[in-house]
């Protein structure tokens, strides 16, 4: 075969030519998406998935200490069991006095006081607040608590069936800085023994300003009188559901204390005579609850409103003998009122209109179960009290007209109602 001949297609002069590459097929958008959706293997999951979360150990020690410093001691003890690093943080924090200012303990008082005292070590003097719920309180436990934490200012021993005056006595006499006592739900606190306690406080009166005796059903008039005499600095007193307290005990309150807040709700023995005596507190009284004191009427409320003209909060819910005369006296005498509860009273349209004109700064108003009010009274409240933020009209004959008036004038008011037609 000669040199000039062709040996095959595409090959001439003895030189073999490479065929041109075939053109690449154009992929459509659908094909691109279909390829992207194919499983490309496990190694691609790190790129396709959400970003990894930072592990806890990437935070600096200073930042963790700052975060944990907002917890109470009881929570820090639980956090110390998570890991060794957190255990070291908790050890560093509990060596400081700041976390020990508030202690929320559990178990019997004697055991809790001993354990907390051992754990606090040199920081025991920093403890200012002690809270214990549903615990067993004994005289020995109270003495140990008072001896260990001498700088306590706030004490809450709630829901204890074993708490009595003998156990409370060392706390009152030995804790010289105690100002706040909460004994809610301690039904066996028998206050007549305070006469014995007074003999131990002849040279010093405790600076107690706040006492909550809610649901302490053993409190009597004699015990209340002795308590008031023992604590002349008292400013906040709550006697909710202390059913043995009557006018005979309440009458001594203005003689010993200048109270700012008082609650005798559900004390059915308190009558108009008791309110006459309480009115002697004058402008110092800012908060009063006589809810469900069924013997309180217009007469007592009128006298109180005339003398305690700086009242900010008044709860007269369930005082069935309270009507328009008493509500008018409240409006004209307590123009600075911010919150008022008139639920289940005999207030009507006329009384509500006067109240609205005289108390334009009302923020909260409860009218639940007031069967004599209607749309006219509610429209007056909406027009004059435009800063109203909370209104309760459950179980009332108010119609859609009154509801819409409140929505129109009180833009930020939350309305509680039981009418499914309101929208």
3D structure, described in words:
InterPro entries: F-box-like_dom_sf, F-box_dom, FBXL15_LRR, Leu-rich_rpt_Cys-con_subtyp, LRR_dom_sf. Residues 1-26 are annotated as: Disordered. Residues 53-103 form the F-box domain. It comes from Euphydryas editha (Edith's checkerspot). The chain is of the alpha/beta class. Helix content is 35%, strand content 11%. The model is unreliable at 1-15 and 25-48 (pLDDT under 50).
Write the layout of secondary structure elements.
Layout (H helix, E strand, L loop, with lengths): L10 E2 L2 E2 L12 H8 L8 H4 L12 H8 L4 H7 L4 H11 L7 E4 L3 H12 L8 E5 L5 H10 L5 E5 L6 H10 L5 E3 L11 H5 L11 E3 L8 H10 L5 E3 L8 H4 L2 H4 L4 E3 L8 H7 L8 E3 L8 H10 L5 E3 L8 H10 L5 E3 L7 H10 L5 E3 L8 H10 L5 E3 L7 H10 L4 E3 L7
Parallel strand pairs: 3-4, 4-5, 5-6, 6-7, 7-8, 8-9, 9-10, 10-11, 11-12, 12-13, 13-14, 14-15
Antiparallel strand pairs: 1-2
Helix pairs in contact: 3-5, 4-5, 6-7, 7-8, 13-14, 14-15, 15-16, 16-17, 17-18
Question: What is shown here, in short?
Answer:
Helix content is 35%, strand content 11%. It is an alpha/beta fold and 423 residues long.
Task: Give a quick set of tags describing it.
423 residues, alpha/beta, 13-stranded parallel sheet, disordered N terminus
Number of helices: 18
| N-to-C CA distance | 103 Å
Radius of gyration equals: 37 Å
Show unreliable segments: 1-15, 25-48
Helix content: 25-40%
Mean pLDDT: 84
Overall geometry comes to flat
The overall strand count is: 15
Strand order of the largest sheet: 3-4-5-6-7-8-9-10-11-12-13-14-15
Task: Describe the largest sheet.
Answer: 13 strands, parallel
Strand % is 5-15%
Strand-pairing-aware structural class = alpha/beta
């Amino acid at each position: 075969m000669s040199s000039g001949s062709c040996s095959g297609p595409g090959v001439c002069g003895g030189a073999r030519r490479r065929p041109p590459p075939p053109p690449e097929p154009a992929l459509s958008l659908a094909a691109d998406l279909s390829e992207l959706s194919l499983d490309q293997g496990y190694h691609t999951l790190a790129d396709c998935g959400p970003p990894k979360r930072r592990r806890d150990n990437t935070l600096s020690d200073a930042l963790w200490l700052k975060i944990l410093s907002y917890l109470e001691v009881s929570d820090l003890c639980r956090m110390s069991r998570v890991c060794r690093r957190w255990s070291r943080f908790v050890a560093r924090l509990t060596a400081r006095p700041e976390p020990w200012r508030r202690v929320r303990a559990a178990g019997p008082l004697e055991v809790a006081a001993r354990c907390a005292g051992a754990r606090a070590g040199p920081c025991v003097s920093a403890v200012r607040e002690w809270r214990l719920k549903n615990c067993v309180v004994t005289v020995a436990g109270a003495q140990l608590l008072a001896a260990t934490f001498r700088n306590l200012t706030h004490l809450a021993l709630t829901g204890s069936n074993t708490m009595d005056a003998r156990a409370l006595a060392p706390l009152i006499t030995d804790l010289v800085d105690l100002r706040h006592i909460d004994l809610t739900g301690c039904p066996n606190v028998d206050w007549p023994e305070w006469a014995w306690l007074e003999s131990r406080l002849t040279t010093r009166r405790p600076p107690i300003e706040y006492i909550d005796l809610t649901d302490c059903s053993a409190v009597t008039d004699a015990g209340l009188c002795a308590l008031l005499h023992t604590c002349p600095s008292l400013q906040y007193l709550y006697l909710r559901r202390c059913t043995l307290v009557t006018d005979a005990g309440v009458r001594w309150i203005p003689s010993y204390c200048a109270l700012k807040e008082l609650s005798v709700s559900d004390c059915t023995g308190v009558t108009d005579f008791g309110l006459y005596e309480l009115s002697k507190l004058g402008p110092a009284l800012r908060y009063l609850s006589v809810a469900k004191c069924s013997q309180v009427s217009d007469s007592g409320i009128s006298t109180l409103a005339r003398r305690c003209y700086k009242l900010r909060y008044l709860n007269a819910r369930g005082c069935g003998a309270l009507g328009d005369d008493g509500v008018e006296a409240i409006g004209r005498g307590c123009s600075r009122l911010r919150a008022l509860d008139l639920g289940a009273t005999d207030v009507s349209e006329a009384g509500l209109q006067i109240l609205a004109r005289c108390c334009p700064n009302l923020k909260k108003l409860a009218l639940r179960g007031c069967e004599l009010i209607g749309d006219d009274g509610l429209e007056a409240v909406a027009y004059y009290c435009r800063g109203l933020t909370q209104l309760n009209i459950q179980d009332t004959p108010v119609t859609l007209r009154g509801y819409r008036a409140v929505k129109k004038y009180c833009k930020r008011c939350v309305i509680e109602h039981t009418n499914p037609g309101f929208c």
